[in-house]
Write a structure and sequence with these properties.
With 145 residues, this protein is mostly helical. It is built from 6 helices and no strands. The protein is 54% helix and 0% strand.
Length: 145
């Protein structure tokens, strides 16, 4: 009697686990195949994505938007200062897969909170824009002039 209940239960559990692994792998493959639009990414970075609150307008670290005092106070209390996205030497994430994950899920121990307002295409567009910021930044040791 116990085997009649236990074996179908184990089969069901295995099927559920197999189905969940397939669904987790599918979005990663789909995201890798997406093409990013840097112009749309710039609009998202400076708008809906609110990236500019901490990283600066157009990624210019010293150009922060005017914020309400409450919002500015919250950002000032963040655990770690955000990296200057135009300064390659301060960037720790080296590939778009890691960058995508941090935008989607946040970065524990920092002020980078999960962004649930952006869909996969939005994040891919932001990543395309971030690539243009890195390309326009001087290499370490290279004069910006």
């Amino acid at each position: 009697m116990l085997t009649r209940v236990l074996i179908p239960g184990m089969v069901l559990a295995a099927l559920i686990l197999a189905a969940s692994n397939v669904s987790c792998a599918e979005p990663a493959a789909k995201v890798a195949a997406m093409k990013g639009d840097a112009a749309q990414g710039k609009a998202l970075f400076n708008g809906k994505g609110i990236c500019h609150y901490c990283h600066g307008i157009d990624g210019v670290f010293d150009r922060k938007p005017s914020l309400t005092p409450d919002t500015a106070a919250v950002i000032a209390r963040l655990a770690a200062a955000p990296p200057d996205l135009r300064n390659r030497a301060t960037l720790k994430l080296k590939d778009n897969k890691a960058r995508f994950r941090v935008i989607r899920e946040g970065h524990p121990g920092s002020g980078m909170l999960p962004d649930t307002t952006l869909n996969d295409q939005d994040i891919t567009d932001v990543l395309a824009y971030l690539a243009t910021l890195r390309q326009s930044a001087p290499s370490p040791g290279q004069s910006p002039y």
